[in-house]
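Please think about what follows:
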Amino acid sequence: MAESAAHLVDSVLPHQNIRQWVISFPFPIRLCLAVRPKIMAHALEITHRAIAGYYRKKVNLPKNKTKTGAVTLIQRFGGSLNCNVHFHQLFIDGSYELGDQGEPTSFIGTSPPTVMEIDQVLTQIITRLTRYLERLKIIVKDDEGGFQLEIPDEDTFSKLQASSITYRFATGPSKGKKALVLKTVPSEGDHNSSGGLVAKNSGFSLHAGVSTNANDRAKLERVCRYITRPAISEDRLSINNEGNVIYKFKKPWDDGTAAIKLTPMEFMERLAALVPRPRIHLTRFHGVLGPHYKYRKLIVPKKNEPLELVDNKDEDTQNSSQSRISWARLLKRVFDIDITQCPACQGKMKIISAIEERPVIRKILDHLGIPSSPPQLSPARRIVSAQTDIFPQDF
């Protein structure tokens, strides 16, 4: 998560205003996106074209004289461990004017979108995506309307994902049932409020309320970390006295549902449904940020620009051929912990050697007055659930 965010901020996203567009889909469409990668790719293309068209219209330039840029991160999970394929698109908040050779000559920023403009973009996406699914005969247009997507019986993985999308289980004693929920007092506010820069229509939702200024790279990195985060928060995961898994939601639902209870096998089924299919890229680059754009190097940040929160004298940062960020630099960047700084003299430390021989380790620890033997283990204690203060223990 931290490494992906650092890469986007340092090497991909230019020093311009960035706006996040998030689109989510109704349950039947989520099923298509989860089990049919080609449909997901086409849905992403439709979404990107609609938003890019909005920016081109905003700057009032012909299509061959302007080009937008975006990075899409495809999330496959929801807040309750359910399969929920949706798109987070980081768009450069404006458009580049192109010269005769297709090179970017200037950047034209745009004002924030209005709710009406977002609704128009969403309507385009719905119309084009519905037409595409009708051509595939996945959506049947008749008097009653219908949705059909056949999944072979032997395609167990798709059945797991289909059940997860509807919050149900595909195997075991709870097959076809939803997970048990734990409720608390309902929240007074609606965390799914439709206020702000958001449009909703027929189960679709398009949100464009999060943006960052060109000079606020720290906020941009926080946004990137959020959309590259893992599917599970370990801080909200626990096991009760009966050995069942309790997963607490970040925010309670409107009806007061604050957590779900799963057996270990049900928990494993939920995890399996979140696994991406092989050879499916979850990060896509578009427009001027695309890898095949001839003038991409004129848009992305220069490699010789200093990295924030990193000492440029560190020999590790001088190795420009290094493809991954070292763990020491990530600790410094994310938590502001510099493990290369001596706590005594504040000087710079470096690794001399890695000692693995037990007698040598014991001798050094004894010399420093540090215990060289591990503490004696105490007998196992009964696990106390973290939810005892909120939920009844016998749930």
Summary: Confidence is low (pLDDT under 50) at residues 187-193, 305-321, 385-395. The chain is about 30% helix and 20% strand. The first strand starts at residue 18 and ends at 24.
